[in-house]
Amino acid sequence: MFARTVLRASRFAAAPRVAPRFIARGFAASTRVNEVIKKYTKAHEWISLDTADGSNTATIGITAYAAASLGDVVYVELPSVAAEAVAGETFGAVESVKSASDILSPVNGEVVEVNEALNEKPSLINASPEENGWVAKVKIAGPEVLEAEGLLEEENYKAFIEKA
Q: Which PROSITE patterns does the protein's record reference (predicted)?
């Protein structure tokens, strides 16, 4: 911080004026990286967590591969809000003109929201399986939960479905 004296001739005052102070501000770099973490299961579900809001609420749905394999989805059984989601256990189902399939939870947590739009328009799963066709939002313990064994990075999931 510094101050500078400026001499000016003024008809109103003969005293020198002090120039405004300029304050150097430092911006601390945050050590927290805000990112979206997205993982996949071998049962063709995806889970996504946006770490920016710190809410630890993960979004779960079925993958584009699963949606394409099912064909036209005609019904979605959603989990109940406040239900417990248990990793590897059924917490919903999808039915298509070809078949029906359970939706398995990739993680443990509590269901805090479901995609009610799927009740009226189950075809959202076909149109946008990994965005608008999400199934449920689950409160999890934290981002470290997504490091669980069995959850795949996108590259590993793509390699897995290529072998299928």
A: BIOTINYL_LIPOYL (PS50968)
Rounded to 5 degrees, what are φ and ψ at 59? -105, 135
- Work out the number of other CB atoms within 10 angstroms of the CB of residue 146: 18
Rounded CA-CA distance 29/132 in Å is 34
Q: Taking the complete model, does pTM exceed 0.85, yes or no?
A: no
Sign of the Cα torsion 97, 101, 102, 106 reads negative
Architecture in CATH of 39-163? Beta Barrel (2.40)
pLDDT tens digits for range 114-137: 999 999 999 999 999 999 999 999
The end-to-end CA distance of the chain, in Å, is 66
- Domain residue extents for the chain: 39-163
């889970």: which residue's tokens? 47
Query: How is the beta sheet containing 100-104 ordered, strand by strand?
Result: 73-77, 90-96, 100-104
